[in-house]
Amino acid sequence: MPVCATAVPSSVTATASSSTRWDEALLRRYDKSGPRYTSYPTALAFHEEFTAEDATQAIERSNASQRPLSIYVHIPFCRKICFYCACNKIATKNTALAESYLYRLDREMVLTARHLDAKRPVNQLHWGGGTPTFLSLEQMGDLIDRLDARFGLSSAPDRDYAIEIDPREADVLTLRHLQSLGFNRLSLGVQDLDPRVQKAINRHQPRVLTETLMDEAHRLGFRSLNLDLIYGLPFQTERSFAKTLEQVIALNPARLSVFNYAHLPERFKPQRRISVDDLPGADEKLSILRTTIDMLTAAGYQHIGMDHFAKPNDSLAVAQANGTLQRNFQGYSSHARCDLIGLGVSAISRIGDSYAQNPTDLASYEENLDQGRLAIVKGVRLNKDDLIRADVIERLMCDMRLDLAAVSRQWQVNANDYFASALERLRTAEQDGLIVRLGDTLEATPMGRLLIRQLAMAFDAYLPGHSGQRYSRIV
């Protein structure tokens, strides 16, 4: 990802299309900065008092649950930097540099696996970056062998083993090799097919590269294909992005991620190569967003939430219909109730009641592992209030609705009393038509779905203390 779906009830399938009220003034009023809630608490609440020992204790506690595992592997290397990028990456063309990194990854696997119950299945695997296909075919095979030796990978048909691919440096042989390694889902970075936009972001990628890979992936029978797009890039207009969408829809991916570009050049050095004067204005961005939703909805995609769209039979849409959709550091996931093991520089784990984060710089990551300890630099153990709020925010972000009676039953609290201040904060959003309350049920309206991050912020107990931090804008 940059930066980094059975029939669904009518309440879930609603989208902010041309058939519903589109209130640009309302969107602008609520378009503030806020967390994406890939975790709660967010990473801003992680602290250095949380140590590698705390992480291993969390792993050992989690074994009693026998929850399945989701493993994320971060490959930080890229041959060429895209100017929009906000990912943790290392620019190099020397694939030999990956050898020492793979060795450290194996050390991390060994140190992690010794605390895990070997019977816990690995239902989900995701390689992200950087550019995972920076690795040679031999290196990719070696990494899979190491993962299998340490954790025991699955061959179950319902496993979700995904990898992010740069179409500029992968070919049909790459796809055949990935299939032989057990991957069954692909995510291809596209961003935009307009040559002028591609030049401005330093990513020359003719459509034929993506089309060739997708044709081969369909032929090979990969279960799900995702394409990543970004709106808000330099020189984009509603008309130009509509042309990209027409071409993308013709490629027929099962899923689409359409991210809002967050221009934060003070935090991400490559973005300093993008002139703010070349970026579309606020009105143009809203037009692009509306056109995106209209075109994808007309093409049969369901708006899962935020920046994700999926065909009705894709596992994301199925999970949302079943109420089992999950949100983690890779976005939306169809495998609920997994413990997430993050491997590699900058990776974050969610194990039971704890989050643990690795260093964001390669030298610190390597130094810790060379000294025989997990490279944990910070994290947090959740208390009961954190766990309750994490559950509420996740359900709102995934289901676009919240059942307060169910919250009361699950957590043995009176949810209406417990969240009295949060519900009061949502009163204005309710008056503005972003959310509807019927008894103990809160449900986001089509416009509210676009601002679901804003609605979730009402339940965030940490947000007042983080008000000085800069998050990306919501729309």
TrEMBL record:
Keywords on record: 4Fe-4S, Cytoplasm, Iron, Iron-sulfur, Metal-binding, Oxidoreductase, Porphyrin biosynthesis, S-adenosyl-L-methionine
EC top class, as a word: oxidoreductase
Cellular localization per UniProt: Cytoplasm
Cofactor(s) for this UniProt protein: [4Fe-4S] cluster
Domain of life: Bacteria
Metabolic or biological pathway, per its Swiss-Prot or TrEMBL entry: Porphyrin-containing compound metabolism; protoporphyrin-IX biosynthesis; protoporphyrinogen-IX from coproporphyrinogen-III (AdoMet route): step 1/1
PANTHER family: COPROPORPHYRINIGEN III OXIDASE, OXYGEN-INDEPENDENT COPROPORPHYRINOGEN III OXIDASE
Protein name (database record): Coproporphyrinogen-III oxidase
